[in-house]
Amino acid sequence: MTDRPPKPVQTPAPPARASVIKPPRRQTPAEELDILIRARYPIIYVISWEEERVENCLRKIAESRKKKLLVWTLTQGIVKSGAEPQRSKSGSGNTSDPISALDAVIEQIEPAIYLFKDFHVFTTNERCNMTVIRRLRDVAHHVRDTYKSIVIVSPMMNIAPELSKDITVVDFGLPGPDEFSQLLDRIVEDVRDNPQIRINLEGESRERLLHAARGLTLKEAENVFAKTLVLDGKLDADDVSIVFSEKQQIIKKSGLLEYYEAQEELSHVAGLKNLKDWLTKRSIAFSDRASQFGLPSPKGILLLGVQGCGKSLCAKAVSGLWKLPLLRFDLGRMFSSLVGSSEENIRRAIQTAESIAPAILWIDEIDKALAGSTSGGGSDGGTASRVFGTLLTWLSEKTQPVFVIATANDISNLPPELMRKGRLDEIFFVDLPLDEERQEIFKIHLRRRGRRSSEFDLIELARLTEGFSGAEIEEAIVSALFDAFSRQVPLDTETIKASIAETVPLSKTMHEELSSLRSWAQGRARPASGVVARSPDESRRKIEL
User: Fold this and answer.
1) Which CATH class is domain 29-171?
2) Rounded CA separation 353/215 (Å)
3) Topology of the domain covering 177-254
4) CA-CA distance, 281 to 290, in Å (whole number)?
């Protein structure tokens, strides 16, 4: 038997350093335009409200490719980019007519990029445009073998079916943080020597202002930054509210959403500890640091529970906590008598919300709006189902940072598809306030009306209002104020107690519905307060010992 050499001791390899796999970077609209022009796509249709921004982008591309950039408008005809406005020429040299302009593109020999502004009125599927559409198809065939490209810029997409195979669409989108940062640097540089203007844009202040400007065009952002300098002579994080006022104009012009100014704070909401903690942890979710850490933007929550317990108040308070604009989405306003208009309305409302993102979209009483979505379409031709389908698809696939807060009182009208994970982050059940929460509610409403809470017996008042909602407690205080004012006496505990005695809370009149709602919420929804309350007359199990 021969001795075998001992096996060498293998030292364990050092653990591999964890690497972060970055997702592939999406091409910017400017990069996509450059690629399409280099690939000699004949006609590119750019969707954008910012003609100047698109023209500047094309000018850089033209300079890098040693090409001319020529611009066409209905009033000027074809002119060199950057040329001073002048009266259009008359006679054979006039290119204001779209047919003449397309003929000039064919006759041009040198490499060039042609930017056609407001040409979308000639690309719609109408009989009067058939000559222009035919000529545009001829030009598309011609420029394929040349170093010429046609770019049509328009705020809306109007493409006749005949042109669908000849045109490539590029959604130019709104400016990003880098472009806003460059704009801000330019504005700061312009006013740096003015001693009357103070600039404080260090760290988070600059980030907050840039994030607030998201959703604006460069021209809108430049206007609102100039407005802040004129109003208060400074530029800092406190000017976020002025930026939001510019976004309010966008909402007003849409006519489909309502803009709410952030006047409520989370301290105005009594109790609801679990919900407050959840919202506070996500208050920095829209920052650059959160994105670099790998955190996605939160999608939304469903606040389900008893009427008058602060669901709508929470939606308003989140806007103040997160410093984001709050948009109220009235689904009832989406429905129209014209066929197809309801679906178009909800798509426009969603696009408006995304255009000013990051924002909070508040869908109040979604259960009433979606009550007919599961009825099979017998009464409204399936309009409610189609509107609901559009909303569900957007909730699942939205990429813009729009946080949805939906409130509901009746779970029987809520389709199960809405509550699937992935569409909303969490479902919170908002129950009747507990004893300590009722004391806090009394403190808040007495303080709002100029009274010192220490002068009232809050413990006794909270005991007498067991089963009351926050709205019912507020109404009891208001009623007591009327009684005290009519008798010309100061408000005291006894006056409020008398008002409480005259109030029949909803928990008594709708006892069965409330019990059913609580039964459904157990195990299906997260309690907003940490503990589920119980109606004062709710039956207790009797055990014989």
Assistant:
1) alpha beta
2) 9
3) Helicase, Ruva Protein; domain 3 (1.10.8)
4) 11
